Amino acid sequence: MATIDGRPAQYGISLKQLRDLMEHRGREGVTRINELGGVQEICKKLYTSPSEGLSGSQVDLEHRRETFGSNSIPPKPPKTFLQLVWEALQDITLIILQVAAIVSLGLSFYQPPTDDVPFDDDETSHGWIEGLAILISVIVVVLVTAFNDYTKERQFRGLQGRIEGEHKFSVIRQGEVKQIAVNDIVVGDICQIKYGDLLPADGILIQSNDLKIDESSLTGESDHVKKGESFDPMVLSGTHVMEGSGKMLVTAVGVNSQAGIIFTLLGAAVDQQEAEIKKMKKGDEEAAVTGNSHMNSPAPVSNKHDAVPETGENHVAVSSASSESHKKEKSVLQAKLTKLAIQIGYAGSTIAVLTVVILIIHFCIKTFVVQQKPWKNSYVNNLVRHLIIGVTVLVVAVPEGLPLAVTLSLAYSVKKMMKDNNLVRHLDACETMGNATAICSDKTGTLTTNRMTVVQSYICEQLCKTMPKFTDIPAHVGSLIVQGISVNSAYTSRIMPPDEPSELPKQVGNKTECALLGFVLGLQKNYQTVRDDHPEETFTRVYTFNSVRKSMSTVIPRQGGGFRLFTKGASEMILNKCAFIYGHDGRLEKFTRDMQERLLRQVIEPMACDGLRTISIAYRDFVPGKAEINQVHIDNEPNWDDEANIVTNLTCLCVVGIEDPVRPEVPDAIRKCQKAGITVRMVTGDNINTARSIATKCGIIKPNEDFLILEGKEFNRRIRDSTGEVQQHLLDKVWPKLRVLARSSPTDKYTLVKGIIDSKLDEQREVVAVTGDGTNDGPALKKADVGFAMGIAGTDVAKEASDIILTDDNFSSIVKAVMWGRNVYDSIAKFLQFQLTVNVVAVVVAFIGACAVQDSPLKAVQMLWVNLIMDTLASLALATEFPTSDLLLRKPYGRTKPLISRTMMKNILGQAVYQLTVIFALLFVGDKLLNIEPGRGAEIGSGPTQHFTVIFNSFVMMTLFNEFNARKIHGQRNVFEGVFTNPIFYTIWIGTCASQILIIQYGKMAFSTKSLTLDQWLWCLFFGVGTLLWGQLVTTVPTRKIPKILSWGRGHPEEYTEAIAIGEEKFDVDSDKKPRAGQILWIRGLTRLQTQVIGGELQERLIPVPYSKSSTDQAIRVVNAFRQGLDARYGEHSNTSLAEVLRKQTSLSKRLSQTSSIEYADNIPDELTIPEIDVERLSSHSHTETAV
């Protein structure tokens, strides 16, 4: 018989049997396990040991992977470069240009036979160049876009890989607990599960304590499910442990786990759906021409119930059809940018159409009316040229470089933030952080080091400020304390020897428990020997720690019969339940109310005021025989479910004070936040005195300031009305002054965060960041505009709910996130300032030129060079500016500040005036000034002139020098400051200059240029440098004198979302609301702006990210929804509704339902709901888009 690693190669149980087994729940599951001989027997069949685990040898693990599969689900292949090129080609403005260029090419080779006039050789020989040049520039743009998308996708996959690689789990191998990457878990592994874990595979419980699991991701039921070996031993992957702990045997991994099976179903369903949608779309395309490659074309919304309300991620508009549900989810910056894009789009398209109309009318009147010539086919050529000029004006008007600037700026920041210990999971969190006005921080681990040590103890009426000797403690009390600490703590908490002899021992597991175990070691006792005498399997009952109990109790069998209960927890909680205490010399005394108050006053409060966390340890005996005064006589086993009567009348053993020192860098970081206009509030579960002490040390509260420090109870009393409902107006009286919230529950934290976000006290509206590490912080992290989870101490649940993970758990990394966020915002503003100047000038020049000279002084190819190539490069140059500490000296922008401030508008208009003056001066008198042939009114095909070349060159020079001016947006004088810290900027600048020289000297027909003399070059340079001097002049104009109306992108984001509705109506197949042709043009041109802007497109179109455990939730939810018979409900509409559900499923996830539109959070229109899926309740979400 074949053997593997010394055991038979044939397992006693097959993959199919295990898969079937996991289909069952509850009692049925217990019966099935018993049919197979019980858990121990299944372990034997899988050749594993419940206590020792697997041997961990590679051969064995590989064989298990081959037999039962590995714990990962293959991702969908990424889009190929060619696919991305194809998608980039779909951009409407590019399509118009391509068509125009091809027509122009065709016409240049076409010689009308009817013509009597001999053809001008020059025209026919060079007519094709312009068409070709436009095609080439289109190809360049497409390649640049595709390449960007390609690198973006690769980056994200890398980031995703990193997030997944960091997900580790406790597995027992060779009898030792090891942290193993989730993907390496195999069937037969024994996993330790505890509070806060996200389960990585399906399994059966071997042993459990008070285990409760949130299975909402699988079932949609939000109630926590109790699990236990005897009544419901099945635990499933993708579910969250909300309470308790236990050990499980892994029975199914990857594709074979319940979550995996659903994933596979989902994948198949999606492929089938996609094919069907495509068929349906073809019929619908003609009806609503609004889609754009970047947004899958809308599937017809034929049933009002098809759309699912979303708790959307950062999707902007996945498709025009589904944009109703998206409307409320833009981030602050997105909302502002979208509004701006729409304004620019309207202006641009109006001017473009006007230009074409004027040119054509002028041409017709001049040719047919004035000169009275008959129609000739060759005139088509002229009309096409006019059209090309019009399209070019449109191309220049729409800031193509904007989405690129945003994407680059974010991607660059995200990459750099990794170095600053910020792992960004949702792109727009990075930018939102720059607008943050409030931070609600946890205390433990974020503001403090989370390395706890016992520094004071009170045992038998002795208060010790140093480590007591074991011999000084009465022997029976000492051994009870050692036993109580060792047994009544999670066995996953241990103290390990340090890696370096000079370092402190490593604390593994719960830090408070580690402090107590350290106390045992300090008494020269070994906690491990006590644990070996009482293995977890022997425990009678465990009441695990949760935020309501604030204590943990363990019941073990007592030597000589009966039971002993050990309890530890927050001292005021425990002392209330104590009836006895060990007094002087270990005498047992009654614990009276007076003694309790004296203890509180003389021991606990002084400890708390030193910033110590106080923990009491107590015990109680249940004996069958004669009971002592502090024991309970029992005849049969007590009812352990009656917790109130079990954990009472305890005997207090000791009170210890645990110190968790403030991180050395925190006070400075908090000072920086306060300077930057960000209020830091501390929300903690600790005692109010401890909290006050730590808050003072951190600088959150300063002496003689007017602030509030509240306990959870008092906070609730102040903010709730007589019926117990939270009232916003009451909350508004509390939060502005509140600095510390102590003894708070997770609900309090959530209420506070929601209250601050919803508050309208301040015109600017608050943007709130929250830090959290525990499972109970999930709701607050989700609600916050930006949620920070702790990378080291954080539970999986907290990381799931967050936007940014602090890989070093350090508060000062948050300050760096603020700096980067502000930098992103500023980079985009800098780019806008630069881009809009170019746009205004180019559009006005093209328009007036067309009216006055019947030909744009800037040719189509030249404008494309300025607009597409230079903008793309400028966006790179300006988006990669490094943040400086000056960013932290200004106040946050808040939600409502206009994107283009008055200062910026002053710069834009000021520079535009200068550039236009120069260009028009050159256009009308430049030929005389420079003594050259005039280029005005030249016939078609007469070839480029030096006159127009000088205009083009001056424009580019002015633009290039204006790039320096654009580097400062707050009216600083020195525009060169820090230029050399940004190599990308100066490399690009020099590169663009060099290309411009080549274009002018050797561009000839392709760029319609004629080489210039040195003299003319110097004139162009002179005009270029003039922008810098003019810039100084513009800066001197006081901004306050400028009317407010000139700042663009004002108002509340809520209003923007209304504006965005234009052209994003739901196109009902039956409705008459067909988009107007004018809208279509620019909506399509702008889709990039709206989709790509921040991560909308990134997430939607670019990242079918590899499967990650966490995204199971959504997938499963969706499948359940449609399993529940959507088809049946919607009859013939089922296809669309399913398609909608599947498409929406990708974004059943966090972001901005809260950020930008608070009013709407509660009243999403009825037409959007599918009753089957209560998304709000399910909104546990994921950091990866499901591979759909």
UniProtKB/TrEMBL annotation:
GO biological process: regulation of cytosolic calcium ion concentration
SUPFAM superfamilies: Calcium ATPase, transduction domain A, Calcium ATPase, transmembrane domain M, HAD-like, Metal cation-transporting ATPase, ATP-binding domain N
Residues covered by the Cation-transporting P-type ATPase N-terminal domain: 32-109
Membrane spanning residue stretches: 84-107, 127-147, 340-363, 383-412, 831-852, 908-926, 946-964, 984-1004, 1016-1037
Keyword Cell membrane carried by entry: yes
Membrane-protein topology: Multi-pass membrane protein
GO cellular component: plasma membrane
Recorded GO MF terms: ATP binding; ATP hydrolysis activity; calmodulin binding; metal ion binding; P-type calcium transporter activity
Catalytic activity: Ca(2+)(in) + ATP + H2O = Ca(2+)(out) + ADP + phosphate + H(+)
Biased segments, Polar residues type: 290-300
Keyword RNA-binding included in the entry's annotation: no
The entry's keywords: ATP-binding, Calcium, Calcium transport, Calmodulin-binding, Cell membrane, Ion transport, Magnesium, Membrane, Metal-binding, Nucleotide-binding, Phosphoprotein, Translocase, Transmembrane, Transmembrane helix, Transport
Cellular location(s): Cell membrane; Membrane
Start and end residues of each stretch annotated as Disordered: 281-325
Signal peptide start-end: none
Enzyme Commission designation: 7.2.2.10
Role noted for this protein: Catalyzes the hydrolysis of ATP coupled with the transport of calcium.
Family: Belongs to the cation transport ATPase (P-type) (TC 3.A.3) family. Type IIB subfamily.
The protein, known as: Calcium-transporting ATPase
Species of origin: Ignelater luminosus (Cucubano)
